[in-house]
Amino acid sequence: MIKKILIANRGEIAVRIVRACQEHRIESVAIYSDADRHALHVKKASEAYNIGPDPVAGYLNAHRIVNLAVATGCDALHPGYGFLSENPELARICERRGIKFIGPGAEVIRSMGNKIEARRSMQAAGIPVVPGSDASLTGVSEAIALAANIGYPVMLKATSGGGGRGIRRCNNEAELRRNYDRVLSEARKAFGSADVFVEKCVDRPRHIEVQILADDHGNTVHLFERDCSIQRRHQKLIEIAPSPQLSDAQRAEIGAYAVKAAQAASYRNAGTVEFLMDENDRFYFMEMNTRLQVEHTVTESITGIDIVGEQIRIADGQPLSVKQENIQRRGFAMQFRINAEDPKNDFLPSFGRITRYFAPGGPGVRTDAAIYTGYTIPPYYDSMCAKITVWALTWEELLNRASRALQDTGVYGVKTTIPYYLQVLEVPEFRNHRFDTGFVEAHPELVNYRTSRPTRELAAVIAASIAAHAGY
Question: Which residues are CB-contacts of 96 (< 8 A; sequence separation ≥ 6)?
């Protein structure tokens, strides 16, 4: 049995993993940079160790992290998401040092991280993919020839890309020529590889992904789908499970595709198979994320399955605790990424000190946060500081509960995306679940919100209270 886990990450996901460890009676080891010395995951873990003054470099040093895991008596390592979570070298080093990597094997991470190789694997398994390159491009001339064959618009993508980086839409040959070197540069800087490919642009698709779990005992299951269509610049903002835009027949179809994809890749542990759904309701494989997703909380809410707990079980060599026929979904769940950003100022990051914070509560509300009153959000990392997940039996109840939960949330001292989400919840197309990946761009008016009178009054009360107790 796994006894001690090093968490190779920070922020809210590190806190989430610490909580899973506590529930499974497992010790947890946190790592932190100088910038993170007051972070919440440092306070909550069983042990915490400084990995150096650089705010980022320590989280990206695979050898140093695994050495620390060995030195502190850990028998497993959880990579979280971001940083080294999809770096096959981390999994490879763990294997060499006798540390259980809580994720798939290094070769699977490598092959699924290569978009061209992943496309080929899915095509061989009979899973539909978007028309595009069969190999990395040799130059802009080949890109132009392929684009002319499959038709504009096309997407120019980094072969090793992910997270919305290294991707550009090209509506014509001039844009393809202009963007080619830019995507190459982005790919080289972000992923260490200048390989790119081109594929047909599915215009304003719905972005649907499926959570899968697979163990070493021949069991592969899906936990239904999530709708991630509400996104800005390829970065997800709101995630919903199950998708209110799918029929039961479509749900069964995409779930079967995801299981087939995982089996074709010889996948183990938790993963996500992502699809695009076009205007004719056809599914196309997009990519496979070989890690825990930010939005796993909505799947946990509708199924009652602890995905991080299952990850630990799988890494420990145990079979899944559930069979496909026993997995049931109940109601709807929605997750909001609370980013420290100013929607009125083109979503500019808003780092600084949290002067006052209180989380929402009540039935069906869950908060995963990395902040607290007095915490200073450092400027070196992603702007997401909390996630609010709301569950309800019906779609209408979910919308109303989500609005209430967002209004219950108080984050003062920095700007956040909460007011923006409150506007999204009132848009008729959203309420009637008719939206796609172009939703945010189609509604630029949503950033022109006003702070409600109750919120202004509440802020004034809090400010007065802080002033009155300043000497305590």
Answer: none
Tokens read off for 34: 């100088």
Backbone φ and ψ of 324, nearest 5°: -55, -40
| Nearest residue to 136 (alpha-carbon basis) of 83, 222, 75, 199 | 199
CA–CA gap between residue 48 and residue 69 (Å, rounded) = 11
- Measured between alpha carbons, how far is 312 from 21 in angstroms, rounded to an integer? 9
Q: Is residue 149 helix, strand or coil?
A: helix
Residue ranges of domains in the chain, CATH in brackets:
4-102 (3.40.50.20), 131-200 (3.30.1490.20), 206-456 (3.30.470.20)
User: Judging by DSSP bridges, how do beta strands 410-412 and 332-339 pair with one another?
Assistant: unpaired
Residues acting as catalytic residues: 291
**What's the pLDDT tens digit per position in 400-430?**
999 999 999 999 999 999 999 999 999 999 9
DSSP per-residue codes, 378-436: PTTS-SEEEEEEEEESSHHHHHHHHHHHHHH-EEESS--SHHHHHHHTT-HHHHTT---
Q: What are the pLDDT digits (tens) for 372-405?
A: 999 999 999 999 999 999 999 999 999 999 999 9
Residue 416 to residue 385: CA distance in whole angstroms:
9
Q: Rounded to two decimals, what is the model's pTM?
A: 0.90
Look up residue 315 and give its amino acid.
A
Helix, strand, or coil (residue 260):
helix
CB 227 within 8 A of CB 243: yes
Do 308 and 103 meet the contact criterion of CB atoms below 8 Å apart? Answer: no
Sign of CA dihedral 191, 194, 197, 202: positive
Nearest Cα to Cα of residue 36 among 21, 55, 58:
55
- Cα–Cα distance measured from residue 115 to residue 128, given in angstroms and rounded to the nearest whole number: 14
E-only strand ranges, 60-153: 76-78, 100-101
Neighbouring residues of 456: CB distance < 8 A, sequence distance ≥ 6: none
Say how many CA atoms lie within 13 Å of 454 toward its Cβ: 5
Instruction: Name the burial class of residue 333, with classes exposed (0-12), middle (13-18) and buried (19+) by CB atoms within 10 angstroms of its CB.
Output: buried
